[in-house]
Amino acid sequence: MKHFILTIILFGLLVSEGVALELLPESIINLSNIIVPHWLLIFLVLINFFNDGDKSYVFIIYAIIFGLLVDIVYTDILGVYMFAYGISLFVSTLLKRILQENIIMAILTGILSIITAEAVISGVYTIINITNVYWLDNLFDRLFPTIIANVIFLIVIYPIVKYIFSKYSNEAYN
User: How far is residue 150's CA from residue 40's CA, in Å, rounded to a whole number?
Assistant: First the structure.
């Protein structure tokens, strides 16, 4: 997979995140719960997870760039998602060095990356007084539904990403 193809996939995921919840039936989406699709982050975590080379910084740069694009397209404050996605992928890179490559470890890495991103986003929004939500309310109303939705996405794309990296591992990022 070359950088051009990766960039096209990430742009597609960026656009898909905006319409993801509109495609779900209203019975699934409860108004008291907030589901935030972090598909870009999950995809970057997976390709970082399967990358054999020592070029993890490339994926952190992708996370920062596309986090900034999420800020530009979907939020009013620049830099929050950029910072959160960069930190999350850094945590994912550290975990990759100690974990094996299987679906359970990929799910664990994805969950920890989402928790890191959501904690950074909520923390920044609380510090600058954009939101004033208690942590326990945020945990049940936003974090748990977000983790469940993104883990389902991770489970769906895991075999696809694994197949692509097993097939094209020699020419991945040379």
Answer: 10
Q: Give φ, ψ of 115 to 5 degrees.
A: -60, -40
What residue segments make up the domains of the chain, in order of their start? 3-11+38-171
Q: For residues 110 and 42, is the Cβ–Cβ distance under 8 A?
A: yes
Contact 55, 169 (CB under 8 A): no
- pLDDT tens string 116-153: 999 999 888 888 877 777 677 777 788 898 999 999 99
Please enumerate, as own/partner, the contacts of 84-88 that have beta carbons within 8 Å and a separation of 24 or more: 84/116, 84/117, 84/118, 84/120, 84/121, 84/124, 85/40, 85/41, 85/44, 85/117, 86/60, 87/116, 87/117, 87/120, 88/41, 88/45, 88/63, 88/113, 88/114, 88/116, 88/117, 88/120
Tell me if 63 sits within 8 A of 174, measured CB to CB.
no
